[in-house]
Write a structure and sequence with these properties.
This protein has about 270 residues and is α+β, with helices and mostly antiparallel strands. The chain has helices at about 10-30, 40-50, 125-145, 150-160, 255-260; strands spanning about 55, 75, 80, 95-105, 110-120, 165-170, 175, 185, 205, 210, 220, 225-230, 235, 240-245, 250. The protein has one domain (about 10-260): Creatinase/methionine aminopeptidase superfamily (Creatine Amidinohydrolase, Alpha-Beta Complex), CATH 3.90.230.
Length: about 270
């Protein structure tokens, strides 16, 4: 396992890359409404990222199961947990939810964040899933301090979500991040306190709860990218990139613009 501790100068570059991700999510969010295709959202994201001097990291990302990822963002609608492929055939409708996962490469460092948006008015039980998933992200971040362990993060997310009756996806995890989009260590959304890699100041990681309304079992669609819930119930996904500190972690990405846009629905 190769874990790279970042200097303050490197963390500053990562902060800039992640702030751009937050701004991109907000730009995409402005166009999320019934009748819009996920491919159109992808075009908006790619143009915004490139106009701001960065590269969309997801575009062309290699896949051991098939071809490279065709989009600049992942657009996962309803029962697609993650890695939804943008398409002109996927048209958003009232009551949908869509998680938009975005990565940028700016000045040699990566940003990575995800937000699950509502399309118009969603059912109360779906809104509760989104609220719980988002809250669990911050529970995980609270546990991410130097001297703690990766298992502390996973336990915080798992305990919070399972207490509400939700499923916690096991097969997909958060990750270290820096010059590469995916670095060591993996950051599962389940675990036991005190177990796993010890967290050290200077580590940068992406924490990303992937939570299902029903059973946690997942499967891959024929596009070899999209991960779907086996029971076809909705799933939510939120992600922040953070820097580990001796006390409270620093969140390098930002939901501020998105929450302003959403009117802080939750």
């Amino acid at each position: 396992m190769n874990i790279f501790l970042k200097t303050e100068d490197e963390i500053d570059l990562m902060r800039k890359a992640n702030h751009l991700v937050g701004r991109t999510l907000a730009e995409v969010g402005r166009h999320i409404k019934p009748g819009v295709s996920t491919l159109e959202l992808d075009r908006i994201a790619e143009e915004f990222i490139r106009d701001n001097g960065a590269v969309p990291t997801f575009k062309g990302f290699p896949n051991p199961y098939g071809g490279p990822f065709p989009g600049s963002i992942c657009t996962s609608v309803n029962d697609i947990v993650v890695h939804g492929v943008p398409s002109d055939k996927v048209i958003l409708k009232e009551g949908d939810i869509i998680s938009v996962d975005c990565g940028t490469l700016l000045d040699g460092f990566n940003g990575d964040s995800c937000y699950t948006f509502c399309v118009g008015e969603v059912a109360p039980e779906v809104m509760k899933l989104l609220q719980t998933t988002k809250e669990s992200l911050y529970k995980g971040i609270e546990a991410a301090q130097a001297g703690h362990h990766v298992g502390d993060i996973g336990s915080a997310v798992q305990d919070y979500c399972e207490a509400e009756g939700y499923g916690v996806v096991r097969e997909l995890t958060g990750h270290g991040i820096g010059r590469d989009m995916h670095e060591d260590p993996q950051i599962p959304n389940y675990g036991r306190r005190g177990n796993g890699t010890m967290l050290k100041a200077g580590m940068c990681i992406a924490i990303e709860p992937m939570i299902t309304m029903g059973d946690r079992k997942i499967a891959m669609l024929q596009d070899r990218w999209s991960i779907i819930t086996c029971d076809r119930k909705p799933a939510a996904h939120f992600e922040h990139t953070i820097a580990i500190r001796k006390g409270k972690a620093e969140i390098l990405s930002s939901f501020e613009e998105v929450e302003h846009l959403e009117g802080q629905n939750f």
